[in-house]
Design a protein that fits this description.
EC number: 2.1.2.2
CATH architecture: 3-Layer(aba) Sandwich
Subcellular location: Plastid, Chloroplast
Pathway: Purine metabolism; IMP biosynthesis via de novo pathway; N(2)-formyl-N(1)-(5-phospho-D-ribosyl)glycinamide from N(1)-(5-phospho-D-ribosyl)glycinamide (10-formyl THF route): step 1/1
Number of strands: 11
Structural class: alpha/beta
Helix content: 25-40%
Catalytic activity: N(1)-(5-phospho-beta-D-ribosyl)glycinamide + (6R)-10-formyltetrahydrofolate = N(2)-formyl-N(1)-(5-phospho-beta-D-ribosyl)glycinamide + (6S)-5,6,7,8-tetrahydrofolate + H(+)
Strand order of the largest sheet: 3-2-1-4-5-7-8
Family: Belongs to the GART family.
Distance between the termini: 27 Å
């Protein structure tokens, strides 16, 4: 299918802000801001808020991976095959805490995006997620933080950075206050990036760095 009709899918795990980025993206698709549709949701936990929201909206939900607690989960190979059957073009992650299987990365090169609640490469890596990130940012004395959108590779939070949004860290911030401020920017930046992706405005420089071409001025990049 053409890129302007790209069909992303959402890969979620139950987290503190469960389902909020998913809802933001889905609502943008419904109102036409994003020229694409979410066609399937993958979750690692059946009772996750994102999965419940998807079912309410009539979206198919797939359980991955299979484990002792979720015996109905599917294998990496079956996941790839299922996504192919849905004609998925892009994979959108938010809150998934495990490494993405190599089979999926190989099947969707330069097509898997993740959002992280800090300005990577700071405060990234295994074990750095959710409220842990915001607490670490405050404890470090950093004056700025913010969400990062990056492409996914075989490691935690090391894929090429596509977009970032700066958020101030205030002197008396609690982790919860900072998290709420960052989350508002997450909703905005993820929708903006997916819009650019579906409009074929993500360009890869010769050195392998992805940049976004301005919609208003094709000669300007961010």
């Amino acid at each position: 299918m053409g890129l302007l009709q790209s069909l992303p899918f959402y890969f979620t795990k139950c987290i503190v802000w469960e389902g909020s980025n998913f809802r933001s993206i889905h609502e943008a698709c419904l109102r036409g801001s994003i020229h694409g549709d979410i066609v399937v949701v993958v979750t690692s936990k059946q009772g996750c808020g994102g999965a419940d929201y998807a079912r309410d909206k009539g979206l198919p939900v797939i359980l991955f991976p299979k484990n002792k607690l979720e015996a109905d989960g599917i294998s990496p190979a079956d996941l790839v095959a299922t996504l192919r059957s849905f004609e998925v073009d892009f994979v959108l992650l938010a809150g998934y805490l495990k490494l993405i299987p190599a089979e999926l990365i190989q099947a969707y090169p330069r097509s898997i995006l993740n959002i992280h609640p800090s300005l990577l490469p700071a405060f990234g890596g295994k074990g750095n997620y959710g409220m842990k990130v915001h607490k670490a940012v405050i404890a470090s004395g950093a004056r700025y933080t913010g969400p990062t959108i990056h492409f996914v590779d075989e490691h935690y939070d090391t894929g090429r950075i596509l977009a970032q949004r700066v958020v101030p860290v205030l002197a008396k911030d609690t982790a919860e206050e900072l998290a709420a401020r960052v989350l508002r920017e997450e909703h905005r930046i993820y929708v903006e990036v997916i819009t650019a992706l579906c409009e074929d405005r993500v360009i890869w420089r010769e050195d392998g760095v992805p940049i976004i071409r301005s919609k208003e001025n094709p000669n300007e990049y961010s």
